[in-house]
Amino acid sequence: MDAVAQFFNAIPLDLIIIQTVNGIVTGMILALIASGLTLIFGIMDVVNFAHGELFMLGAYVGVVVVAATGSFWLALVGSALILAIIGAAMQILTLRPLIGRDPLNTILATFGISLVLQNYALWQFGPVSRKIPDPMSSSFTLFYLQYPWYRIFIAALSAAIIGGFYLFLKHGKFGIWIRATAQDRVMAQAMGIPVPLVHTGVFAIGSAMAAASGVLFAPTTGVDHTMGLDWVLKAFIVVVVGGMGNLGGSIAAAIFVSLLESYATIWLDPSQAVIVSFVVLILTLLFRPTGLFVPTPK
Amino acid sequence: MTTAPLDKPLSLGKTRLGHTTIFWIGFCVVIAVLAAAPLILSEFWRRFLTEVLIWGLLAMSSDLLIGYTGMISFGHSAFFGLGMYGAGAALLLVKPPNLWLAILFGLTGAAGAALFVAYFSTRLRDIYFAITTLIFSQIFYVVIFTWTSLTGGENGLIFTRPHLSIPFIYDARFTSTTMHWFVLAVVTASYLILRRVTQSPFGMVLQSIRENEPRTRAIGYPVARYKMMSVMLSGLFAGLAGVLYAVQNEFAAPNFVYFLTSGDTVIYNVIGGIGTLVGPIVGSGFFLLARELLARMFGEQFPYLIPLGMVFIVMIIFLPQGLLGFARRWLNR
Amino acid sequence: MSAADDSATPLVLVEDVHTYYGKSHILHGVTLSVAAGEVVGLLGRNGVGKSTTLKTIMGLVQPSHGAVLLDGNAITGLAPHKLARMGIGYVPEDRRIFRSLTVMENLRTGLDRDGVTADRRKALLDKVFAYFPVLAERRNQAGGTLSGGEQQMLAIARAMMLEPKIILLDEPTEGLMPRMVSQIGEIIEVLHQEGVAILLVEQNVPLTLAASRRVYIMEKGAVRHHCASSEIDANDPVIKQYLGV
Description:
The complex is a heterotrimer of chains A (298), B (333) and C (245). Chain A has helices at 2-10, 13-44, 51-69, 72-95, 103-125, 149-170, 172-183, 185-190, 195-217, 227-242, 247-267, 270-287, and strands at 139-142, 145-148. Chain A has a two-stranded antiparallel ribbon. Chain A has a domain at 29-227. In chain A, 76% of the residues lie in helices and 3% in strands. With 245 residues, chain C is an alpha/beta fold. Chain C has helices spanning 50-57, 80-86, 103-111, 118-131, 133-137, 148-160, 178-193, 205-211, 237-243; strands at residues 12-21, 24-34, 39-43, 65-70, 73-74, 88-91, 166-170, 197-202, 214-219, 222-228. Chain C is globular.
């Protein structure tokens, strides 16, 4: 019995709980980013390499709005709206001309856009990271930590946004348009659904979601022009693991991967913990390439 | 699809030269110009031209995958980086530093990475393959970045340039001119080899895979094996570029392994023209030259990637075949 | 004798259309017309280009040569969703209903249009449910759970939601039980009574001849024969020539 007791004592239970909370928080943000990405892919077969930069720009717009108005909520809403417009413009100018061409073209085009946006941010805002102050500074005690309420808040708000979007998809005319287009683009057109508009709309929504995650996430770390890179990589992993085009799958995968990574940081250095998500991806590709969270492989 | 030499004369005005003859004449002219260049250029431009050739080699290796097999890869930074670090390892471990050992170590390192990437990646179609190669670049990046004791971590490795030694014939330090000639020789040889490969039956199968993979598989070709070989070959030449870079610049650093380097490579490919082998070299020249000129006109801080990125995007939309795309058929005969 | 069109402008006119799929020359100058409210049949073996003709009219495929006119206006090159709004309904081969959408949602893809009042919506839905009671029963079920025949009904009902001037029907009886085949015949008659024109592509010759006023017969990408349905029957040598095995 002694050995068992010793074993249980060795597990840092408090650390695990803390990291579970952390994992869920990061997971929800990642889910919000990945939802937009998987939606765009599911509807238009476009792999949006620039998605991380939409996240990053969203955060920067948030910084600017907060600096100008002092309101976090205004920053959140304003950033989402502005990035929705930017995303729509992006799609109309650079992706519409590429419809019908080899999908490799859109990967390259969005990659080019990501470079332009990154460097624009660097040029416009400089290399020093900016900050958005926490909208709520209170915290509660979690074991030996002062855990900021804010982190719980962003997880809850991300979940709310995703939930709201899910409801939007399930009800209402536009939800039907989007789901019909995702299912069968050709017949959607034959039914009078303006598919090009749906594409642009979806891209705008995806961009807005990325921007919102950027603003929500900004107070926890600094905002700089490279923040998109790490997140886009993770988002891609999540989208593949969750099943490309599968909304529920990417949410589950986001939380799963984030939890694993958070646990890994108990024993590993954070810069090494990213390997966890890489390993998950490799295993998924080897054994369940259509996605870990897809019910039956097609 | 192979035309016998001097088969159909091109109508070049009144001349009656065969395609092959024109090609080789043009080839020799270009080589001669590139070889003579260091004699008249300043030190800076000499090194610049050498770097263009090195990046061109990297982009050329990537063209084998993109232009001929139809697979977009963001993994070349891994092959390049491992070639670089491999060379560095040889130059640090063995005294006196030996050029050929560096090449050997570098190619071995790159081959190892290519094998790893190839095995996992070739089972996947386009998008998944691209993302996976990107992830693999990042895996290598993280490993190199964090395994400080082995790789020097963030600071990279610094080593000395070996002598240019051809046993029994020659042994002396590199000058920037002889360095250039060495690189030119390596790149030229690589081009000739890759050209031979792409025009061989093997190369034809690769192109068939690019055109229509399911049909190629249906005909009976072991597509996965061909793809793996393509990745291996591509990785080897990318690694070679890495070795050259290490020898030229005497350091190895992790940021070259970051996937953005692969991104740059793909940009050179697209600008220069995919499926042409020389196009990527032209593309890298164009890009690096533009960058240099922009820096000179507007200062080092100028975000050159904004205009150049936009050029890239515009080219994808309106000129996807790249600068040399018009000559693609001709160059591949 | 050919059944010449009235002097009025036909509803749909396909004029010397050539269509390619990549390098394959599928349609070699197809010319046909459908008058308002008319049921016209399009017969021919597999692969002669019947479906491609419908797709060209619907704008899903662009012709390289020739024109398609609706009410005398050229519509070649217009996007399919515009054509649907302009009054062309399309019921493709293998139905292609939205499997993950419910029956009701499938209908709504056609029903949710500008200018349809709530009363009109109700009237349309009531009408369609009266014709297809099965769909009313299954209205909240996912389209993918319906049987083949039910899906065919849904595909037609969905097109009806657009209140089209013409419906392009591509092999509606394929794979259906005989009982359902006659039901399709009844539906076509009902649509005809309502004044909807129909261009019916079919392999089922008796059904087509019974339902349509005129038939075109295609072979190798062009119209080879054109006559009134009353002039021939299923055993006619013309039929044997172009559709016989």
